[in-house]
Design goal:
This protein is of the alpha/beta class. The chain has four helices and five strands. The chain has a five-stranded mixed beta sheet.
């Protein structure tokens, strides 16, 4: 079961910038190998941390204006938002431990 929210240009503001919880946003694409490798990790975090954080995914091919807005130059890129602001960024593969540490630092 996927617990990450599918984010689009139409719901991004409501789900991310106006969220009262920290939000982990995964910028990805269907053709991106590393994106597929990190996807299960993102879903795991969404399941485990669902009560305290929000996890969302942005398909960069379908939401190009969001990619431009957040200056996404490589994928996967993970942005961590708190109070509507980007507080941290990870580009490329990372470990679950690293991501959880970064999320805990936001709380």
């Amino acid at each position: 079961m996927e617990n990450a929210i599918t984010l689009t240009e139409s719901n991004f503001d409501t789900e991310v910038t106006k969220s009262d919880k920290p939000v982990l946003v995964d910028f990805w694409a269907e053709w991106c190998g590393p994106c597929k490798l990190i996807a299960p990790l993102i879903d795991e975090i969404a399941r485990e941390k669902g009560g305290t954080i929000k996890v969302g995914k942005v398909n960069v091919d379908e939401n190009q204006s969001l990619s431009f807005q957040y200056n996404i130059r490589a994928i996967p890129t993970l942005l961590l938002f708190k109070n509507g602001q980007v507080r941290d960024q990870v580009t490329g593969m990372t470990s679950k431990k690293d991501l959880l540490g970064r999320l805990d630092a936001l709380a």
